[in-house]
TrEMBL record:
GO terms for cellular component: cytosol. This is Oxidoreductase. CDD domains: AKR_BsYcsN_EcYdhF-like. It comes from Caldimonas brevitalea. The lineage of its organism: Bacteria, Pseudomonadati, Pseudomonadota, Betaproteobacteria, Burkholderiales. GO terms for molecular function: oxidoreductase activity.
Amino acid sequence: MTDTRPPVPRVSLCPNGLQLSRIVAGAWRMDAWGWTPQQRQRWIEQNLEVGVSSFDHADIYGGYTVEALFGEALALAPSLRARLQLVSKCGIQLVSAARPEHRLKAYDTSYDHIVASAEHSLRALRTDHLDLLLLHRPDPLMDADEVARAFDHLRQAGKVLHFGVSNFTPAQFSLLASRTALSTNQVECSPLQLQALHDGTLDQAQQLRLKPMIWSPLAGGRLFTGDDERSRRVRACLERIAARYGCSPASVAYAWLLRHPALPLPIVGSRRIEAVQEAVAALSVPLDAPTWHEIWSASTGHEVP
């Protein structure tokens, strides 16, 4: 019998928790794609066809426009909603005509702002619930009890099913986790951004058995366009390894992330379904430990101590 399952598995972010696809589609730049609603709908469907069922948003993307663009496409085929998971983020205030009450760029993790942001996202995405809501950035004025109260309200109302954070240090994560259940920490990591590997972020994720989400897994494209010495060095290393494995250098970069025992979920923020397919292909690239360290050494410019 032919196996018709999509090649991307769904995994639980935490024990008995929300399941997301191991590769996540990012909608950050959707406002710049210049697509019709039908083209956006087709992009959603193409991701689903390969098993990428989780879509990453934030209220501020596109100056508060991207969620509505996605929601407009979703409204063309409402049955798609049951097949996908919607992730959004809140907590950053942008100065924007869409939010005339904002005087300057700032963080706001108050009860009122979190609840209002979630409700804005629900209306824009044309859904009755978010599968996952993250605080977008750590706020120096965050009151953990007030955040927990907002999360509890949204959970009890059925408007948000699970919660997490983004860009939090281990200490910041521990503080909020002491007040409310968190499912993940979405952080930056790539062969050009190693901080999460060494500052305790991925160690904490593994300790708590929480799978992190990874933004900018290709360093915002610098892995393949950067002209600095480090980018060129890492790119040459990825190309050598790609030739060994018979895949693209981008697939090797994704495989490098996927190899980590914290089991991260990289976010692919591209309009090109081919870019998504390169990330999917990485699931079949079995990097061994020496090859993983070869890429780490190319990034740092020295061998391991």
